[in-house]
Structures are given as C-alpha cells and as structure tokens.
Write a structure and sequence with these properties.
Distance between the termini of chain B: 36 Å
Number of helices of chain A: 12
Strand content of chain B: under 5%
Structural class of chain A: mainly alpha
Oligomer: heterodimer
Helix content of chain A: over 70%
Radius of gyration of chain A: 24 Å
Mean pLDDT of chain A: 82
Structural class of chain B: mainly alpha
Order of helices and strands of chain A: HHHHHHHHHHHH
Low-confidence stretches of chain B: 1-17, 286-293
Radius of gyration of chain B: 22 Å
Chain lengths: ~325, ~290
C-alpha cells in the first residue's frame, strides 16, 4: 500500500510539473504585451522597454519559467497586473469562499446521494425509485447555470426567501453570510448528486443479492438491519471513491455557479483574470485549481486501492 | 421488500452506474426528440418568425404573446427565433467538438494500442496530464490565449475530449491486436495504416461510438458553460449558453428570455442522453458476449 501511494505521489508530482510547464507555455502566447498592459496603451516605447527589462521579459523562456516556478515553490505566486497586489492573498481569500461553498455542496451530495441511492435500491422499480431516477436524470441533463437561474427565479424572485447572489455581510468570522450559500450549494448538489445516488443504488442492489445478505435474511434478521448493517456497509465502498472523484467535478461546476450567483470565489477570480489578461493571476489560479483536482483524484485512487484488496499493492490479496 | 435474486442491473460496471440501462424505448424517445430538434435546426432560418438579430427598441422585454410566442429580449429580439437558430449552434458545438476529438483521438488510440512501446507510453502520460485538468479549466486555459469565439470554443472542447477517446480506442485495440485476423494481416505484410483503419477500426467502433455519444452531451454542456461565462460564442450570437448569460440581469423582470433557451438545452441533452443510453443497450451486450467468447 505504501509503495502504491508513493508511486501515485511521484506520478502526481510529475503531472504537476508538466502541468506548470503547460500553463506557463500557453499563457506566454497571450495576446497583448504584458508591459503595455502595465504601462497603459499610450505608454512611450522607453517606458515599455524599462518595464520589460524590469520583468525580465527578454530573458530566455526557460529562465522566465524557472523564475516563476521557483517563486511558486517558495509560495510566491507573483503580483497581479490589474489589481497591483500580490496574487497569493487574493487567491487565498477567494479560495476560502470557494472552499466553504464546495464543502457545503459536498456534504449535501454525499448525504443526500447515499440516502437517495439506498432508498431507490430498497424500493427497486417502485414509484419512488422511478421518481428518484427521473430527478437525478434531470440533475445531470441540465446545465448548472440553468438550474441556478431557475432557483433564483423561484426562491429569490417569487418567494423572496433567499438572496439571489453575492455574499452578503459576512459575520462571526465566516467568509460569507450563510444565507447566500444556500442557492449556489443546492445548484451544485443537484448537478452532482446523480453520480453518487446511481452508483449507491447499483452497488446496493448487488450487495442485496449477495450470499451474505441472503444468509442474514435467512437468519431472520429484520430487513432494516440487513440493509443497514450488511448491505450498505459493503455497498458504500465504490461510493466513497466516486465521492472523491466528485470533488473534481465540483471544482469545474464552481466556475459556472459562482458566475451565476456573482459569488466571489476562485472560479470568478480566474474568469476575471482571463478577461483582463492578468497573466500571473491566470497562471496561479489555474495551477491551484489543477493541484486541488489532482489531489482529489489521488485521494480517489488511494481510497479505491485501500478498499479493494485486488489493487492494494505490496500486500497479498485476501 | 425482498429483492429478486437475479437482476440485470447487477451487470453494470461500477462507474457506469450513472447511466442505468433499461428499455430500448429510450432509443425511440431520444431519437424522436433529437429528430425533431434536428429538423427544427435545419429549417430554422425558414420557420423562425423573425431574424435572430432583428432588434426593435419599441418591443423590448415583452412577455410571450401571439406575435412573439416566447417574448422578446432586452434588444426587442424575438426569443423564439433566437432559440430556434441557437439549436444549430448547440448541435454544431456538440457534433463538431466530438468529431474533432474523434479525428484526433481515434488514430492516436489505434496507433498506441497497436504499436505499444515508447510511443504508447509517452502518449498515455500526455493524456494523463490533460486529464489532470478539470475539463472546463483546460478549455479556459486554451481559450485564455485568444479572443473568444464559437469556433475556438469548439476546438478547445474537441481537444479537451481527446484523452477519453484515445483511452477507449487504445483499450479496444489492445484487445483486438492478438486476434487471429490481425495477426494474419500482419503476416500478409499489410501496411500499418491498412491494419489500423481497415482491420482494427471496423471491429473497434461500437465502444467508440458509445463513448462519442456520451461526449456529445458533455460537449454541448461544456460549450454552453463556456459561452455562459463569456469564453465561447459572442454577441449577437443566439447560442443558448450566451442567451441565458445575457438574460441573467433580467431574470427578475423578464424570465422568459432565460427559460426558453434553458429548457431547449435541457430537452436536447435529455434527448441525446436517452439516445446514447439506448445505443449503449443495443451495442454493449453483444460487444461483451463477443469479447467474452
């Protein structure tokens, strides 16, 4: 197992390295000279040349890459061109807000997804099962931004229960007023819940057909006990893996959902950076997001290996 | 309630749980939805009551009426006409990007599975790196370096979905290379290109087609998301994602502008998903029993 984790860690380190080269390379092609962007479009050539020299834009590309990458490794993500502030704290603030939104959505996806999956499996082919199936089908078939707008329409516009966007007046040390989290979190949950509930359903069905469940039934155990203690415990293993994978989907979804709800998180920051061609900010946000994504995938792999003796390296299968 | 002992659902691979096969009825329903959509998209310029970019300041933000079934937007443009023409863009996005990823991914996957060795190794590691980006992030990274446009979004999405196509093609190819007819072609001295495209590909396409059908919906959704965040189609285009994005400030006063393209998109994606599910049911079992034999 340890060998396996070490192998995966090495692979991730390699992937992150290649990714940083890719991010750096692609952003170098960005239209518009960085020096002009700092100095303004009416700057004289002297000023532009001075800035270019200061930023070392004439250095060979690998020297520039090394300057950027070694900075990143030291925790220095550079200076935002547009906001004229260090990128690090900017990203940190945005990430805290994104993390709280993603965290709430993740808990909802996990809890609701498993509950719906179990109910659907226990009541297989009933009206409830079909209703859950249709509900989750809608979740994966409809783009997040559309659900977001429907929710705003219903809960903010007609019912006037919840705010339609923004983060309100954060209090109690929280980065965001909790009421402003509800609609974005529901939108994200809805978009992701299908994976978890459908997988839980199919692995529950498989577990319920297994010999140990038949044996438990034959012993005369109550059905609810059979479901909870015997079937669910075994059926949850693949679900845990898919949950970790869902963290990756969450990160993708969050870019769109933050735009719908004008929620100032990492996704919005990235889009802002792209619109303004703020190079250091683009590089840093994509690198951070990709790192989180890789880490989530790594956790998914490790969990999968941990729960699956066939894959568990360095230890004989039971 | 006791569960039956034998159940078709148990045959699903764990991660395929997202699409639960049931009846080929899905194929029919999905086919009908997509059929209607394709006809509407094809005839859009002739059946749309107005031009998609025809503005009228006197008719701004009008609710649905006999003259404008789906109302008008903030420039007085007819939402129905825009939605109809948007169907073309959505289908173009889904099919265009998927075709692009097939054109790039299938030859690479065939070659990697057939050649193995260093080429395979380097290619698969490259794919791993591409897969390590969340799809929308890779799309944004590609689009960040240029001025956004619909065709650029299509190319970006096409590139984003190359790795899954390469993977599936490669794995099917790996299964096939040891078959006798491939060995025979090899012994006959057939060219690599002939073996790849005339011997392997015709036998490898069912799983690739299933994967591609899945990709179309992903491509449409990703394309809409990119347009929605301003990185895809640009105004005055009637792309559905862009329409919803432009309708966002008016969702309080004129919700119909967002609802029409949004619902159209839901219907399209549900239709393609049903079609894909149906396709999978028709192709999968046969494929499995063939390979299992």
């Amino acid at each position: 197992m340890i060998t396996y984790v070490a192998q995966r860690l090495l692979a991730i380190a390699f992937i992150l390295f290649v990714m940083s080269v890719l991010i750096f390379g692609i952003t170098q092609v960005l239209p518009g000279n960085v020096a002009y962007m700092i100095a303004g479009q009416f700057a004289t050539p002297d000023v532009v040349a001075a800035i270019e020299n200061k930023l070392g834009l004439h250095d060979p590309i690998f020297v520039q890459y090394w300057r950027w990458a070694s900075g990143v490794l030291r925790g220095d993500l550079g200076q935002s061109l547009i906001m004229e502030r260090p990128v690090g704290p900017l990203i940190q603030e945005a990430m805290a807000r994104s993390a709280i939104l993603a965290g709430v959505a993740f808990i909802c996806v996990a809890v609701l997804g498993i509950v719906l999956g179990v109910v659907a499996a226990v009541r297989k082919d009933s009206a409830t099962d079909n209703a859950i199936s249709v509900f989750t089908y809608l979740g994966i078939s409809v783009p997040e931004f559309f659900w977001g707008i429907v929710l705003i329409l219903v809960f903010a516009r007609y019912l006037n229960w919840l705010p339609s966007g923004g983060i309100g007046d954060p209090a109690f040390g929280l980065p965001v007023d909790p009421r402003y989290l509800i609609l974005p979190a529901i939108t994200l949950t809805f978009a992701l819940i299908a994976h978890v509930s459908r997988l839980t359903r199919s692995s529950m069905l498989e577990a319920m057909r297994s010999n140990y469940v038949r044996f438990a039934r034959a012993k005369g155990l109550a059905e609810s006990l059979v479901v909870r203690r015997h079937a669910l415990r075994n059926a949850l293993l693949p679900t845990i893996t898919v949950l970790a994978i869902d963290v990756g989907f969450l990160i993708g979804g969050i870019v769109v959902v933050e735009t719908v709800f004008s929620y100032p998180g990492l996704g919005r920051l990235l889009l802002f950076a792209i619109e303004r061609h703020d190079l250091p900010l683009i590089q840093a946000s994509i690198l951070i997001i990709a790192t989180i994504y890789c880490t989530a995938n790594l956790i998914a792999d490790i969990l999968y290996a941990y729960f699956n003796p066939k894959i568990r390296y360095g230890r004989p299968a039971h | 309630m006791a569960a039956p002992l034998i159940d078709q659902d148990g045959l699903e691979a764990p991660l395929a749980g997202v699409t639960r096969p049931r009846l080929p009825r899905k194929l029919v329903v999905g086919g009908v939805i997509i059929g209607i959509l394709v006809v509407l998209a094809a005839l859009a310029p002739w059946i749309a009551p107005y031009r998609f970019d025809e503005m009228s300041l006197l008719k701004r933000l009008k609710p649905p009426s006999a003259a404008h079934w789906f109302g008008t937007d903030e420039f007085g443009r007819d939402v129905l006409s825009r939605t109809l023409l948007g169907a073309r863009l959505s289908l173009l996005m889904g099919i265009g990007a998927t075709l692009l990823s097939l054109v790039i991914g299938v030859p690479l996957g065939l070659l990697a599975g057939y050649r193995r060795g260093r080429f395979d190794e380097v290619l698969m590691r490259t794919m791993d790196v591409l897969l390590s980006f969340p799809p929308i992030m890779l799309g944004l990274l590609i689009l960040a370096v240029t001025q956004p446009a619909l065709w650029k979004a299509i190319i970006a999405i096409g590139i984003v979905y190359v790795p899954p196509i390469v993977r599936i093609t490669r794995s099917v190819t790996l299964d096939l290379v040891n078959e006798e007819f491939i060995q025979a072609a090899h012994v006959r001295g057939d060219s690599t290109r002939y073996i790849l495209f005339s011997e392997i590909l015709p036998n490898a396409w069912p799983p690739i087609a299933v994967e591609a059908s899945l990709r179309i919906t992903f491509a449409i959704l990703l394309g809409a998301a990119l347009s929605f965040v301003g990185m895809g189609a640009q105004p005055p285009s009637s792309d559905w994602g862009l329409m919803v994005s432009e309708a966002r400030p008016f969702v309080d006063s004129a919700p119909w502008i967002a609802l029409a393209p949004g619902l159209a998109m839901c219907l399209t994606v549900i239709g393609i998903n049903l079609l894909g599910d149906g396709l999978r049911e028709t192709l999968d079992p046969r494929m499995r029993s063939q390979r299992g034999a």
